[in-house]
Design a protein that fits this description.
single chain
């Protein structure tokens, strides 16, 4: 008997893909064994009174067989009803679980989409701030370049003006001798 139990148990274990299925099956089997209600003892057992006439014994035996067949048929019908009810209950539980998983997946997808949308908005804001910073820096550089160019132009103009002013002080060659004498005598600065 122990060998049969071990072989049957190993066969049952091999039918399941993972440990959780096996554990669930084992719990259901134990629960069924604990809650199972056995039929009352059969009235056929020990009810045989041997009649003296063989034909009468054959008729009584045939009647007992028919009654027993009826009772077995009823037990089988009850078993089928129980199995169908269990299958319906299991199907209902599976559908409920699938629906819960579907709702959880939808919720997770919604949260994921919202998080992606928030990240996209933050990314857009950061890009916009970066563009504004770049534009500001470019404007500052352009303004700085313009100011330098303007200062350069002003210095150029000042040099030109200074040169122009000094050039007006220049003397013609004809009057150069006269100016030299005046400068030596009068020592004035240009």
């Amino acid at each position: 008997m122990r060998f049969f139990v071990r072989v049957y148990a190993s066969y049952i274990r091999s039918q399941f893909n993972d440990v959780e299925d096996y554990v669930a099956f084992t719990r259901a089997f134990i629960r069924h064994r604990e809650n199972h209600k056995f039929l009352s003892p059969s009235s056929f057992v020990g009810s045989w009174q041997a009649p003296k006439d063989p034909k009468e014994a054959e008729a009584v035996l045939a009647q007992l067989r028919r009654d027993y067949a009826k009772q077995v048929k009823e037990v089988r019908k009850e078993y089928i009803r129980e199995m169908e009810a269990m299958a319906l209950e299991k199907q209902r539980k599976d559908e409920t679980q699938r629906e819960a998983l579907r709702v959880a997946n939808e919720e997770r997808k919604k949260l994921k989409a919202q998080a992606a949308q928030v990240r996209a908005q933050e990314r857009n804001i950061a890009q916009q701030q970066f563009r504004e910073t770049l534009l500001k820096e470019r404007a500052e550089k352009l303004e700085n370049w313009r100011m330098k160019a303007k200062k350069h132009e002003e210095k150029k103009a000042e040099k030109k003006e200074l040169l122009h002013q000094r050039s007006s002080l220049w003397v013609d060659e004809a009057e150069l001798e006269k100016e030299i004498t005046n400068v030596v005598i009068a020592t004035t600065y240009l």
